[in-house]
Amino acid sequence: MPKHIISGLKYIAAVNLRKQGQTQREIAQALDMDRSTVSHYLNGRNLSWNSIEIAEIVTHFCPKDFLILTHALLNDTERTRTIIQTCTDSKFEGIIRNSCIGCGICVDTCLMKAIVLNDLKAHINDEWCCGCLICMELCQTNSIEIKEVVD
Ligand code: SF4
Ligand code: SF4
After folding, report:
1. Fold topology of 92-149
2. In this structure, are strands 144-149 and 121-124 parallel, antiparallel, or unpaired?
3. CB 9 near ligand 1, within 6 Å
4. pLDDT in tens, 39-95
5. Does residue 24's CB lie within 6 angstroms of at least one atom of ligand 1?
6. Which of 30, 49, 82, 132 has its CB 3.0 to 4.6 Å from that of 64, i.e. a possible disulfide?
């Protein structure tokens, strides 16, 4: 079952990356696939529609569950980032308050690796933040605010 979910997620991501103008070579690299498989996927071959339907359901999980499941299945930050970013439309902004004590817990727990410590203060790279709120829940000084960006 996990392999079916990964295949379905990669199919959805491949289709979306193609819509964004990426070549088959770029898609293969981004998703760690061989080019022939990408070609098959883009032509609707070598993949069961059941896998795609299950993956579609997964992409509609809340951001936290989608991220945890995807990261657990792929065990790879770069691929996880690609899948999450190409399969969701939402954008988020992270704000760190002055109460941050630079403990680094949020840095260690962010599965998207979107947080770094600079001068003993956390900084969130909004490009990678998927709004899972794990950092916010774990920060002991309540220093993190994550807001969805509405166009
Ligand atoms: S967990 Fe909170 S206090 Fe610790 S570095 Fe992150 S924002 Fe700062
Ligand atoms: S909400 Fe926090 S833990 Fe989740 S991706 Fe954004 S910065 Fe990382």
Report:
1. Alpha-Beta Plaits (3.30.70)
2. unpaired
3. no
4. 998 987 767 778 899 999 999 999 999 999 999 999 999 999 999 999 999 999 999
5. no
6. 132
